[in-house]
Structures are given as C-alpha cells and as structure tokens.
## 1
Amino acid sequence: SQELEQSPQSLIVQEGKNLTINCTSSKTLYGLYWYKQKYGEGLIFLMMLQKGGEEKSHEKITAKLDEKKQQSSLHITASQPSHAGIYLCGADPTNAGGTSYGKLTFGQGTILTVHP
Amino acid sequence: EAQVTQNPRYLITVTGKKLTVTCSQNMNHEYMSWYRQDPGLGLRQIYYSMNVEVTDKGDVPEGYKVSRKEKRNFPLILESPSPNQTSLYFCASSFQGAVNEQFFGPGTRLTVL
C-alpha cells in the first residue's frame, strides 16, 4: 500500500521566516493533496497537484510536485501566526494514473508553530 | 451556509453500548467519508461512499458500520464499541468529480471506557 512520509514532524519558526514541509511517497503519485488542520478541528483543503513539476500557490503558500511524482514540498513565505496548525499531505493509493475513487491516505502531519 | 455537521461533538460511553455518530452535509455532495485521528497514527480513513447505497472500506473499517440511504447523511455506527475506538472522528464530503477536495466536519471526540 502507498505510504506518505512527512518531514519534519514538527516545526517551530519565528514570524516572518520561510519554511518548507516535505511529503514523500513510496509509490508514484497521481494526485497529491495538501490540507491544513487547526488543532482539534476539521481539515481545510489547500491545493491539489497532479502533474510532475507542477507548482501551485495560494497566498503565501506554494506547493510543488517533483518530476518523478514521488515527493511534494509545501513552502510558506514570510510565515505568520495564522499559518500555525497541522499540515497533512494526502493521496489516493488506488489511483494508478486514472480517476480517484475516494480512498485517501494521509501522511502523519507536520505540526507548525509560529512565534510572533 | 455550506457545511458538514456531526453529532454529537463529544461523547463518553462504555464498552459494548451501541452508538451512532451522525454526519450531514447540505452541499448536495455525492461523496462522503469517515476518518479517525489518533496521536502518532495520523488520520486514517474508515469508510467512504461514492453515492447513495454505494459504500466501501477504507484503511481501518473493523468495528464500524456505515449506511448511505440518502445523499445528505452518512452515519457511522459502532455496534459494540471498545476502548481502542477512543478517538477523534471526522466526516467529510465532496463532489464526485473532485473526491479528494473534501469539506470536513468539526469532529466528534469519542471516549469509550
């Protein structure tokens, strides 16, 4: 089965600093999803990456899928306290280049703390 | 307001006492799913449903049942809860064409004594 490994497991940064979170898959990814969770709350969808080399940005958050489609990075520029939370990457382990049918596996998450 | 609602939000129960956690969405989504979140184990999918009367197992279905008799509701049933089912549970929904862009409910914190 597909496993997603996230690193680091936790991250503490000073406000204004840049940071990167990585998500590595044991298999080729045909759809990689980034979610954010505030502690104890539901997840919020951030963005989806499908093609090798694809890069997407939303406000100060940029995510990229590498050419081999086995690793994704999430980069936050000039972090703010509002960026604090748990970031999770997810993928459908049954998607072999076709349609996803909703089976979703997540990485263990990266806990981000931003100090003012 | 578009949302996924779960009830109850908090529940303390005892081993073996059947319980149901309800999930409802008002966005006319075809796809719905249940997850549990545990420290050190992350977020794991229990069951999912692509549409009415269509359900399938996720990674950790043992000890759980679901039903999808109507589009908006997807209840999670624990017939005989055990302490290892103590967890934070999330329901989520999405359009069928974008099943991995899911809207999550606020969570249900379940404790089984």
Note: Chain B has a mean pLDDT of 94.
## 2
Amino acid sequence: KNEVEQSPQNLTAQEGEFITINCSYSVGISALHWLQQHPGGGIVSLFMLSSGKKKHGRLIATINIQEKHSSLHITASHPRDSAVYICAVDSTNTGNQFYFGTGTSLTVIP
Amino acid sequence: NAGVTQTPKFRILKIGQSMTLQCTQDMNHNYMYWYRQDPGMGLKLIYYSVGAGITDKGEVPNGYNVSRSTTEDFPLRLELAAPSQTSVYFCASSRLTEAFFGQGTRLTVV
C-alpha cells in the first residue's frame, strides 16, 4: 500500500506542450510538496501546498484537500524541464512523517 | 546556511566492507530520514528518526543501522556491504512542513 500515488510514471512531451502530473494520497496531511530531481543531481523543493494553488514561473501546483489530490502543471514545456518530479506529503497521521511518491520521469523533446 | 550535508558524494565498496554515510543538518529539524533510490525507481525509506535518541525502521532497513545521538547528525551504517546496496542514498530532514534533502551519496558495491 502506497500512501502517495503518482501518475503517469513516465511522460514524454514535445517542447511547448502543456504538461500535467497527478498525485493522490491516502493520509491526512499538513502539506504537500512537489520536488524536482534532475538526472544525476540532487532534489530540490518546488512547491509546498496546504490549500489552493501556487504559481512559480511556468510551474503551477494545485491541491484539492477534500479529494486528496494534487496536480503539477508545466506550461510551455522546455527540454530543461526534463527531470523526475516527486510528490511528497507530510502526514498528520504519524506526526509529520514524510511519504513520497515514486516519481514521474519527464522528458521534453526539442 | 548549509542545510543538509551528506558525505561522501561517491564511494566504491568491496563486498563485505563496511562504511558510514554521514548526514548533518543545521536547521534544528526534529525529523531526519535516510532514503535509497535505485536506478529508475522512486525513493524508499530505510530509517527515520523523530528526534535525538529515537530511530525507527522504514521500508527497507535490512543491512543498515542508524543512530541519532544529536539533533544535527544522523549517520547511516552499512555492515557487510552487498551488491544489492548499490544505490544513491539521500538524507533528508524536516520540521513541521519544511523538508530539505542532501545532495546524495552514490554508492557502488563491487
């Protein structure tokens, strides 16, 4: 049983396309995080959400607490967006322990 | 402003050798985690700690040990290294809804 499920697992897009990555979770949360991991690189936090929507440049993250679902959107995708995107939640069920999705591997083709 | 510092960044071990992966954070975070990430796979929790003196097993603890004598440090010990432990290891820390990751340690067991 995975507390956090992401879809799709792999995604290939043409440069300029609008991209959506989905995340569903089954535990009560304080916040949801979207993380980015470049090939061979470290992990950086893109967004932390507890409600509504956040936007940073071409990235938009939304969360629906009632449906326990979040989406990460990338507008006008670019090859430099190619990375693994990971959804993570910090769970109120277990005293703020983090749970991670397995990641979505995105490749943007020029 | 160091955040989470992991050492070493790369290591090659022979089968049966032991080593300790170091992790230090300077943000006074209560929670610390060790994850491994196999090629093309998501993060799997090895051990976590909710504070100094308290550790608990994650999803894949076999072959590893941890200790948490201080809030800042959370070393991961590999005893009798095996090829199955070839992976990238990430240390992370969190407090309430903040989470930060180290840069990762790429370990190869030959």
Note: The two ends of chain A are 37 Å apart (CA to CA).
